[in-house]
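Propose amino acids for all 132 sites.
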């Protein structure tokens, strides 16, 4: 791309990159946009149109960077929540499945929990074994 084209109308290539960065949540493209905005600084001191283009690109860049970072943070939080939920659900069933099974092979059912529940004696025995 010719430098004169970029200087004559810097908004179009900037907006193409901006839309790509926001759509793909690309921090690398946001870094390229930052370099582009920085490269317009000398022009804004020479021409009034350059000043306006630089100011507009700077505002787009700041808004886009904030959006991309926020969306990436939300994705990380959602992934962490899913990971924690999966880990919590599987820790007692995958790691120590025998904890939930009675010696006769039946599984522990929380609805049967109580003083008169069939597995109550076994649970007390397991608690005694775990405390030793």
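Proposal:
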């Amino acid at each position: 791309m010719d430098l004169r084209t970029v200087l004559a109308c810097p908004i179009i290539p900037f907006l193409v990159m901006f839309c790509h960065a926001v759509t793909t949540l690309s921090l690398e493209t946001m870094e390229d946009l930052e370099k582009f905005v920085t490269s317009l600084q000398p022009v804004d001191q020479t021409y009034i149109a350059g000043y306006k283009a630089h100011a507009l690109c700077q505002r787009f860049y700041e808004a886009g960077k904030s959006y991309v970072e926020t969306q990436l943070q939300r994705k990380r939080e959602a992934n962490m929540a899913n990971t924690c939920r999966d880990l919590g659900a599987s820790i007692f069933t995958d790691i120590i499945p025998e904890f939930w099974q009675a010696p006769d092979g039946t599984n522990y059912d929380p609805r049967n929990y109580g003083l008169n529940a069939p597995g109550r004696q076994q649970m007390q025995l397991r608690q005694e074994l775990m405390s030793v």
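The CA atoms of residues 102 and 108 lie 7 Å apart. The mean pLDDT is 73.
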